[in-house]
Each structure stands twice: as structure tokens, then as C-alpha cells.
Amino acid sequence: MPLLTLYPLLFWLSGYSIATEITGPTTVNGLERGSLTVRCVYSSHWETYLKWWCRGAVWRDCKILVKTDGSEQEVKRDRVSIKDNQKNHTFTVTMEDLMKTDADTYWCGIERTGSDNGVPVQVTIDPAPVTPEETSSSPTLTGHHLDNRHNLLKLSVLLPLIFAILLLLSVAASLLAWRMMKRQQKGTAAPGG
């Protein structure tokens, strides 16, 4: 039991706040060259505190990309904007003109005295669909160069399906063999009986 009381202390010492005061999505997907929006929700007593969006897997080392100014005005910096809605206790982060290199761990956070409150959000960027114009203007771009993840997806669906079919066939063959053996036993037992 004493070890359980040390966990909050360890989190506090590491600079990571247990995110009970703020929540957000675990993962968010966006399309390359598109935009994505993340909505983070916070407890009511944090309305006037500054909210931020930072990038980096390690809490203490993440780089703040954009921060509110304490009002409900949208703040924009480069391709990222943040807007606080204090009545709804939410703030929204929008990332625009997404690139594959934007895929990373980000954090929704609230600035406060001591350790900030924060929650991690994993951002993934999917490749943009290839338009007919792009295909005709770049003849070297072929389907097998676009994205190997589609092949992995096909394998992740096909392998279990093939395994299930093989399993069903082996069960059916076993049942058939069992029935044939039973018939042979009845056939040999009947004349001698």
C-alpha cells in the first residue's frame, strides 16, 4: 500500500501531471496536405488559464507550438492555431497543410504554477490520394510506390482469413474421416455379429 501513495509523488517529480483536469483524443488522423482538428476538454476552474499545444514524445522536452493568450481569441502561429472556448471548457487546435513529418506525439496542456496539466495526443498523417492530374504529369508514380501500408493492411486481413479457412477445412476433413471410420467399424461388426 505505501508504494501506491508514491505514484502521485513520482509523477509530480517527473514533471508529468496526471491528466484528470484535461482530456483529449488518444489519436487523431489527418491527410497529407489537409488539416486536422483536436478538441481538448478541461475542468471548469481552468477557464482563464493559458492553454497550449506542444510537440514531442517526452513531456518535459516538448516544444510549445502555439499558446492562447487567456482570452477566447484564436491564436495562429505558422500552420497551427488554437482557440479557447471558456463557456464550453474546451480548446481547439487546428493543424493545416499537413505533411508526413507532422506525425508525432503532441500534448494538449494548461499552463499553471508548478507542473502544467497535459494529455498526450498521437497524430498520424495518411498520404493524400493521388489525383488523375498528378498521375498523368508524373509517369514514374505507380501504385506500388504509393504506400506499403496498404499491402500490410491487405496481409493483416488476408492472413487471418486464410488461417480460418484452413482451420475449417481441417475440421471438416477430420469429421469426414471420423464418419468414414465409424461406417467401416459398423460394416465389419455387422456380418460377424
Comma- or semicolon-separated keywords:
193 residues; alpha+beta; 5-stranded antiparallel beta sheet; 4 helices; disordered N terminus
Give an overview in words:
- This protein is an alpha+beta fold.
- Helix content is 35%, strand content 29%.
- It has four helices and ten strands; from the N terminus they run H-E-E-E-E-E-E-E-E-E-E-H-H-H.
- A five-stranded antiparallel β-sheet has the order 1-3-8-7-6, with no helix packed on it. Strands 2-10-9-4-5 form a five-stranded mixed β-sheet, with no helix packed on it.
- The chain is elongated and about 95 Å long.
- It starts with a helix and ends with a helix.
Question: Roughly how many Å apart are the termini?
Answer: 73 Å
Low-confidence stretches: 3-18, 139-149
Strand order of the largest sheet: 1-3-8-7-6
Strand content: 25-35%
Write a brief structural summary.
The protein is an alpha+beta fold and 193 residues long.
Secondary-structure blueprint:
Layout: H1 2-14, E1 22-23, E2 27-31, E3 36-42, E4 51-55, E5 63-67, E6 75-77, E7 80-85, E8 90-95, E9 104-110, E10 117-126, H2 132-137, H3 143-146, H4 149-192
Parallel strand pairs: 2-10
Antiparallel strand pairs: 1-3, 3-8, 4-5, 4-9, 6-7, 7-8, 9-10
